[in-house]
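Shipment paperwork, digital attachment
Item: protein structure file
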Amino acid sequence: MSRTPRIDFQPHDADALAQTQGRIAVFVAADGPDSDAARGLDALMGGALTRLADGARWGRVRPGEAVEIAVPAGLAADAVIAVKHDSEADRLAMRRAGGAIAAAAGRGDLTVLTAGLRHAEEVALGVALRAYRFDAHQKPDDEAGPEGTVRITGDDSEALARAAAPMAAIAEGVAFTRDLVNEPANVLTTDDFAARLAAMQELGLEVEILEEDELARLGMGALLAVGQGSDSPSKVVVMRWQGGGDEAPLALVGKGVVFDTGGISLKPAAGMEDMTMDMGGAATVAGTMRALALRRAKANVVGLVGLVENMPSGRATRPGDVVRSMKGDTIEVINTDAEGRLVLADVMWYAQERFKPSGMIDLATLTGAVIIALGHENAGVFANEDGFAEAFLAAAQAEGEGAWRLPMGDAYDKVLKSRIADMRNVGTGREGGSITAAQFLKRFVQDGTPWIHLDIAGTASLKSDSALAPKGATGWGVMALNRLVADRYEG
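Attachment content:
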């Protein structure tokens, strides 16, 4: 199972600090303790924080970074974590500071002193996000110490708890996404994935699972072609949150390839184990829907995910095969490793036919080309409407989630022309690979539907720690999509 800390909000109690167990985190200005909480702690420590601020080491520490003072004199605590604080720090900087505290604190009890700070609720969110770990398949590490409780203390703990409540829902949505992406494929089968989503009915989501016979009846030949080489049944899961009025919903569509071998166009063996994360788009949709339900969002949102496994076998789709999509267009499969767009094509069309959404966003770990273009700092953003794209980019920026818009155009479309079908599933060369993938998907967007395609291949999972996540799944996109819903679709 994954672990995120329990966070309690309590009034600041200066008299109790000397006997506080575990670790204590405190914010200290560049020139020394400048808040009542920091000065009180400094006095108990015999001026240790003042001496730290006067030393050369503190000068090399950047705002938001943490320094640990082990076995502090005058305290029962194991350590004090001093965070360099800029009084002008914005909400994202305070969130990252919370992440720095969690990274330094490790296991055990943690008390964070936030009295007098702006954006203290963001510190709590940063702690929750960075303290996540996925240890479902590891033996308990007794030497690392017991799990602890995080206490956030402040001037008005009740007000702080109220401000942090919606963020707790966001943190849980992010953790849910990370859990899904981190799970190995022998655990997170298409059946297991669907069952985890069905369990969210207890949160108030309406969840419907479409099995292969129904997908065949609907004409989803492109999606079914991807999964036909696997023993795991292909599925589409529909999650509905009806928190608004009678307005058309926003549709979120996710690619859920629980494992991607490449199919007959087999991937190289080196690194193939990472393809357990090829369902990152579906996981992000699921985590967003969880967050919206938990915070009772006043909007209508429908999440749809196509769950398949791409395996080679005697039944698998071959390069050169022609498949028919739900739209009715035929697709020549040139490369069976370009499978995600086939899944999305049918689910996007189904979403539009059934729900007539006010807008549609698809998410997918779709192309390696987007990593070459943008690295791991930004997801690729493609859109058919400037206003919709700008709204998402603003939401991503507000949440500190990197996103960069890339171009589209008819010139990129020409390489998808097929000799024997309505289109090919890949272009004729490697140039502009993430763009030609977006051009393929655009063919399955109906006239009048605002649409965004998010290629999250570079941001869904990382090989090293980041400010708000340990290495592995990041949960990128849950916070940005939640912000978009709040800013654009809630009154």
